[in-house]
Amino acid sequence: MQTIQATNYSVFFNETGYEKLASYLIPSSYSRIFILVDENTSQYCLPHLLNNLATEIEIEIIELEAGENHKNIATCTEVWAALSELGADRKSIIINLGGGVISDLGGFVACTFKRGIDFINIPTTLLSMVDASIGGKNGVDLGNLKNQIGIIREPKAVIVDTEFLSTLSPREMRSGLAEMLKHGLIFDKNYWDKFKNLKDLNTEDLNELIHQSIQIKNTIVCEDLSENGIRKALNFGHTLGHGIESYFLENEDKTSLLHGEAIAAGMILESYISKEKGWLTNEEYHEIKYIINDIFERIEFNENDINQIIELLIYDKKNEFGKVQFALLEGIGKIKINQEADNVLIFNAFKDYAV
Fold first, then answer.
1. Which pLDDT does position 163 carry in this prediction?
2. Domains, in order of start, for the chain
3. Does 330 score more than 70 pLDDT?
4. What element of type H or E holds 5?
């Protein structure tokens, strides 16, 4: 697959990625390499990386517990301390080998350790390949509130090795599809249409879809790195999706959702709001709802759940001047940013989602 050029870094694929990685990791450039993994990527992905990592630089491994509930400042403190104890200096580099949690947290740790050291993202999940590792957003959660603490700073490089997808469960694969579906809905109707026959796709088709998804996100980010304008389009499905994800994460009587599962529900809900505002036809809305529901199991919400999720919206990091901001669809493949929706409309969206 062809290399994708971002603003200040490149996204390399498969064998080309490891060749480029070797060219970066030379003793004259870096004093020490730190590979950040979680307990899953340490077991299933690290051996593959080490077998393809050609360097003379000393390597240290830092392993974290897996899961969104560890994406916080306390974990960052542990990693900062480990870096110090292992002798990291300003010429060290961190390789983030993992999913969205590792990419987000590892990037944030790198950006803040000794006021910033280089990092490279090697995503191991579909979700992190097409979303978390791309675009320079790094950060952690504040309690159950998603991505409240962070910084935008781009990596040195991103290496996408689709071999890692073989380590994923079907549920993790579906989670990654949510962001790919989103890219079609906000940017490219032809790309969206390819998901109508998802069951007929083979491995080569999936690789091409991954490449196109990364291209779409990169195109948007390159136009607006600091998220003052069009990059807000990438938040479609995330205003309500993050509220749902946070609510299920903090409630012990709820089963935690994967990011993509919550975002899938958020996209249906925000498509309903788009329809009710007159920007999406009834046919388009039902097409979106059908395709997403064909991939993801419907989440059950009671009235109390809905009210508490709506209350969480006030903490969304995209809000401006105390108002909840949505990115909504203006037809499939087009987006309207900086939109508002009242609580009655949001509640009605949840009610329609349930049927």
1. 96
2. 4-167 (3.40.50.1970), 170-353 (1.20.1090.10)
3. yes
4. strand 4-5
